[in-house]
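PROTEIN DATA CARD
Card holder: Ectoine/hydroxyectoine ABC transporter permease subunit EhuD
Chain length: 215
Origin: Streptomyces galilaeus
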Amino acid sequence: MSWDWNVVDDFMPRFWDGVLVTLQALAVGTLIAFALGLVWALAQRSPRVWVRWPVVAVTEFIRNTPLLVQLFFLFYVVPNFGPSMSPLATGIVGLGLHYSTYTAEVYRAGIDGVPAGQWEAATALSLSKGRTWRAVILPQAIRRVVPPLGNYVVAMLKDSPMIATIGAFDMLGEAQSFSNETFTTEALTVVGVAFIVIAYPASLLIRALERRLVR
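Structure generated from the sequence above:
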């Protein structure tokens, strides 16, 4: 089958619409995953059992169920019991919630990696628990976990096409729709190249950042 540049030209407006949806889902989903993941990680260290165990149960459940099932649940089931969201908003919440359970483990490992002497020094300086976390523990822990967190951003990018299943047409969703209408494959090829162009440089940047931070 020959390559038809006219087909590509016809697809490009829809491609850029899909790029915008993909970037929105990735950017906001990442913010949710990073922020909520830190909340999960701190809650799992709570001395209160009634806080710690429900959080552990919820994060384990989310981590061990497919993202696609969670998206369907948020889009088709949750509106029966509360307000509904647009397909894009649902996709963003689903991505952020799903990946927050993984970033929580990254934060937990970073916190556990802070030397015990740092806790002892904060105690010796009579720092409050809140100030110990803000000024001593979290700055060191977050510095350690930046590269692993970056890997999950790339993973979220590769999972973002799943939001098309609930009607939020990202790059791949637009390409599939266009290909079904025109019986061509150029659009899918363009999107495949686009994912490589975005993901590969991002992975190189993460590796460089990791080398810089471990010095």
